[in-house]
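Posting this for the archive.
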Amino acid sequence: MNPQRLTIITVAVAVLAVAAILVIPRIGGTTQATTTADLDLSDQPVIGSADAPVTVAIFEDWLCPACANFEANVAPTIKREYVDTGLVRMAFVNFQVIQGSEQVARMSECVYRQSNDAFWEMKGPLYRAQGELRDTRGARDLALTYAPGIDAGELDACMADPSSLEVVRTDTQLAQRLSLTGTPSVLVDGVSVSPTLDSVRRAIDAALP
């Protein structure tokens, strides 16, 4: 093969590889920065004091194993140390990167529409039962089990309403506009940090007044 042609092919392959890395969503979070000006959490499930000095936004996919790990090993500690003490306001945003997760996200949106408190009570147990979530009927039954006070008829009506699906897709578009490339993605006051307990703690501590 002509050496010049070989060089051109090698460069082209390298460019395509870099492009793939930049475009394909990853499971396991991102370290890119964004800004609070882009982050509107007014229609998202939120827990914690409205007066908390720091806001933590968590972008997750319900079928993402790394998200289940985050919910088991990171989120409870952040809630106990910072949310329950009035230092952090924490928000959840649906971010679909795994095929088949859209209907589960839609179900979670419908639970949230009925009760923000029920959504947060449901979230941890639902991630622990992640293996059962690929079945939409199973996800619905789990939601009714773990989300106290949720009306089944209202949940079904919401799931049939096109607006619930549109909201889920809008949430994913928000993540994409923020250049987030994987789940879980964690933003502390609008800045993306690694989704590890130490990293999130350090970022929160640095953001506290």
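The chain has one domain: 26-207. The first strand starts at residue 26 and ends at 27.
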